[in-house]
Amino acid sequence: MRSGRHALRGASVAMMVGLGACQGTGGSFSGSAAGIPVKVESIDGAPAQVKTAFASALLTAASDRQVDLVGSGTQARYRVRGYLTTESTEDGSTALAYVWDVFDDSKRRTRRLTGSSPIRIASGKASWTGLDKAALAKLAAQSMDEIAGFLSESGSGATRVAQADPL
């Protein structure tokens, strides 16, 4: 079972990186996220079918924000590792949440980005099976807004927070 999960995780990441490699490279940096290569190394926490759908939505959101996702054979200035989860909110509803750890080329975590979005779950359904494409697209857009914002700050000379969290 464990080796199957690793294979599935590897396949999901490989698919995302492969799709990311299809993205065009941005031009020179101009105060935006464009031109700063980013590699998505993993997305954990969700079942395979949710990861696959989220990876697709993430690629669309990255393209819309000119975030340059690169494949595994390409040098990246930053690497990100993500985690998705569902959580109960104080009012008893459910939210879909993400955590992105952004690492620099020295393998130090430079930023942790987090966010969540309320979702509707069909009565009697498990939280993951109650998700629809709109909820995943919304969370992917939020994720890329955060990542693009960080890239814009880092490219404009903002201080990079280097923590001793090796990969």
Provide a quick synopsis of the model.
Helix content is 36%, strand content 25%. The chain is built from three helices and five strands.
Order of helices and strands: HEHEEEEH
Termini Cα gap: 25 Å
Rg of Cα set: 16 Å
Q: What structural class results from the helix and strand content?
A: alpha/beta
Reported for the largest beta sheet, the result is: 5 strands, mixed
* DSSP summary: helix tally: 3
CATH superfamily label = Lipoprotein like domain
CATH class: Alpha Beta
With strands numbered from the N-terminus, the spatial order across the biggest sheet is 2-1-3-4-5
Proportion of strand residues: 25-35%
Count of DSSP E strands? 5
How many domains, as an integer?
1
Shape: elongated
The helical percent reads 25-40%
The name of the CATH topology is Double Stranded RNA Binding Domain
Please state the average pLDDT score: 76
List the helices and strands and how they pair.
Elements: H1 2-21, E1 37-44, H2 48-64, E2 68-69, E3 78-88, E4 94-103, E5 109-119, H3 133-155
